[in-house]
Structure formats: C-alpha cells, structure tokens
Design goal:
By secondary structure, this protein is of the alpha+beta class. It has four helices and ten strands. It has helices at about 50-55, 100-105, 105-120, 125-130; strands at about 5, 15, 20-25, 30-35, 40-45, 60-65, 65-70, 75, 80-85, 90. The longest helix has 13 residues, at about 105-120. The radius of gyration is 19 Å and the shape is globular. Residues about 125-133 have low confidence and may be disordered.
Length: about 130
C-alpha cells in the first residue's frame, strides 16, 4: 500500500501518499482516525491496528492510538515526549517506546560519539568547541 484515501472537511476523498502523512491517531468514541499530512488533515474510517497491518509497518506506533511517520520528524522533545514534524504539527509518544524511538532516530548515538571524541584526545580546538556546548 503506497497511499490512503482521506476524507477532508467537505467529505471529499483525496489520495495521500504514505510518505506525505505525518501521523495518524484515533478520534475518541468514533471509528475514525485523524490523518495529519503535508497538505492539511482529514479522517478515515479505520482502527489503528488493522491500519498498521494494512500499511505494512510503514509507520512507527508511538502509542496504542497513534502511528507516526518518523522519516518526517525534525525535532524530538524527550522531556515531554513529543515528536515535531513542523513548528505547529506534533504528536506525543509513550514512555515505553522511548528506547526504540531513540534507536531509530539516532538520538543517543551523537552524545556517545561526542563523549568518545573528548576522551580519545581529539584535536584541542574540537575539544574546546565540544566542551563549550
């Protein structure tokens, strides 16, 4: 599956490529999901589990009610567990997926590399620059 048909606010169905979808989350007390994508948002008549299977695992399950396209993430707030796709477009993630998310978005690796560079005796200018960060 490479795309979804999403219903906009005018009940018009539009074709959205999976790569253009930021995240999908359930709408409480309905059988609909909100789909937030590059051109806006819409909804589809679906449940998260079958939708995740149908899309072949393209999305990362951040919570039991949310699927996110981590390829489009540009910022992560680890304190409040929020993924940012654009300035005002974001979704939250569960604490239980933090470790896997950090592995998929190499968040911890940069810090480990910085520490190893400090202790391996890299260039003095580089050490001063890293130490000041």
């Amino acid at each position: 599956m490479e795309h979804l048909y999403v219903q906009d606010e005018d009940s018009f169905f539009i074709k959205i490529a999976l790569e253009d979808i930021y995240y999908i989350e359930t709408i409480k007390s309905t059988h609909y999901c909100k789909v937030v994508h590059r051109n806006g948002e819409g909804r589809i008549h679906a449940d998260i589990k079958p939708l995740d299977r149908k899309t072949g695992g393209y999305f990362f399950k951040t919570k039991s009610s949310t699927l996110a396209n981590i390829k489009l993430v540009w910022g992560v707030d680890t304190k409040y567990r929020i993924l940012y796709f654009e300035k005002n477009i974001h979704c939250s993630y569960a604490a239980r997926v933090s470790k896997e998310l950090k592995e998929r978005l190499p968040l911890t690796y940069f810090r480990e590399n910085v520490k190893s560079m400090l202790y391996e005796g890299g260039d003095e200018d580089e050490q001063d620059a890293v130490a000041s960060v």
